[in-house]
Amino acid sequence: LHAGDYVFIQFGHNDEVPTKASYTPEPDFVANLKRFVSETRSHQGQPVLLTPVARRKFTTDGKVEETHAAYAELVRAVARDTNTPLIDLDRSSQALLQQFGVEPSKLLFNFLAPGEHPNYPDGREDNTHFNELGARRMAELVLADIRALKLGLADHLVQGTVKKTVDPQAR
Q1: Which pTM was predicted?
Q2: Where do the domains of the chain lie, and which CATH numbers do they carry?
């Protein structure tokens, strides 16, 4: 880590699930975030906190359901307490999923038909992990907030178009 480097700190997705080995109780989660911010600053780095991205979960009436309420709020509180820039990816990704809607939002996630991918011969319906399109859309949300927060990093971002050949037979 060098002086002026940006360190993006995002946790919560797995920390909040009590049944997982990676579960981190709330007080420990907060202490860890504060330690990461402090250690980054002690090396003259620039910490940026991010809330976890939303999972694809909708209510029966088609509204995006909050899946990270407690841990996302903990990240927001640490950002306030430590005066650290915050990218609220939880809220912005929820808004994006709501904009897409219940069925179209599947286009952002790993929804694979049987035989479509060699790693998942029986198919897969994954409401947590993004496919390439979803990852790009999440990156766009982060980039928008980097610019909105006027982080010095924004001066080094290049606006451009990604050119990619798409094989229509691939699907």
Answers
A1: 0.86
A2: 6-157 (3.40.50.1110)
